[in-house]
Amino acid sequence: MPILVPPVYLPPEEQPGPPWPTLLNRMPAVSFTDPRGVTTQFSDWERGWLLQPGAKGLDMPGYQFITDESPGIDGYELRDARAEGKEITLPIAFWASDSRAAYKERRRKLINSLNPKRGVGALTLIEPDGATRSIGAYYRSGLEGDESLDAAGERWCINALTFGCPSPYWIGGAVTHAWKAGTSAVFFPVLPLQVGDSQVLGEVTVTNPGDDVAFPVWTIQGPATKVTLTNQTFGRAIVLTRTITGADEIVIDTRERRQTALLNGSINLWPDLSTASELWPLDEGENKLNLVVDGSTALTSVSMTYQPRYLAS
């Protein structure tokens, strides 16, 4: 009778090659911040949280297309495209190493934080190189409860959390450009802007690094009598006529669904905007701007803050 022996496996000899790019093995750190400001870190191995492979929806949104067809002509004409809100699914594992009571407490805190009745929170991704982007999000599904053998145990569970995102865009860090009038009729410090005793004049270039338009928030510190902010790239202007002193501040917020013009945080300046004014955005890439402030002095300053919008995390 032959003697049966297990096969001997000889691993293949390792072939020399380029070093493995270790950063490809590192997942971004992911967290959710609810509307109250409570943050849950989903990428915190030491504290029992792990983002599993299989995340979906982190890149481009879906689009709604408007097209026209003409009789007797093949194909169609694309008239418009609108990015739609989207869903993001994150497979999350979490556990407690000390007791089931501690695990249940952690689960309850997560469920409390995800309550969608509080409104829209934010998902934030931080790449290994430090790049950070966030997107408005609220819980939709995934924590209904699954006690299957491969989905949960005494002190652990794996859930695919699905978040709804009303806006399709990931938001980058805030970018601020500031200009201040100097006594020598020169604007300081970031971009060159010519300044006179009664008027701030200048053409400047601002580059938006995002994948889509970005809506700035303008802050004008008096004195001033009239403000004209023109985006020559779009051919649109904001013109606001109001006399303010050095103790006054005008804030013009051009962001979608938030558009306001306020004096000192409370006085509505919408009636002081010209009828032709448009609260224009920054186009993606280079923007040619022309800024004019009538009635300015050495105390007058203008600043603009915006957050680039990206189609992918």
Summarize the structure.
The chain contains 1 helix and 24 strands. A hairpin with a 5-residue loop joins strand 7 (121-126) and strand 8 (132-141). The longest helix is centred in the middle third of the chain and has 14 residues, at 100-113.
Describe this structure in words.
There is one protein chain. By secondary structure, the protein is mostly beta strands. It has one helix and 24 strands. The termini are far apart.
Parts with pLDDT < 50 across at least 5 consecutive residues? 17-25, 182-198
SSE run: EEEEEEHEEEEEEEEEEEEEEEEEE
Number of strands: 24
Largest sheet: 7 strands, antiparallel
Structural class: mainly beta
Beta-strand residue percentage: 35-45%
Categorize the overall geometry: globular
- As a percent range, the share of helical residues equals under 10%
Mean of all residue-level pLDDT scores: 85
Query: Gyration radius, to the nearest Å?
Result: 27 Å
Terminal CA distance reads 64 Å
DSSP helix count? 1
* Spatial order of strands in the largest sheet: 2-1-7-8-9-6-3
Question: How are the SSEs placed, and which strands pair?
Answer:
Blueprint: E1 29-33, E2 39-41, E3 49-51, E4 63-68, E5 77-83, E6 86-95, H1 100-113, E7 121-126, E8 132-141, E9 156-165, E10 170-171, E11 175-181, E12 187-189, E13 194-195, E14 199-201, E15 203-208, E16 217-221, E17 224-231, E18 236-244, E19 249-253, E20 260-263, E21 267-268, E22 285-294, E23 301-306, E24 309-310
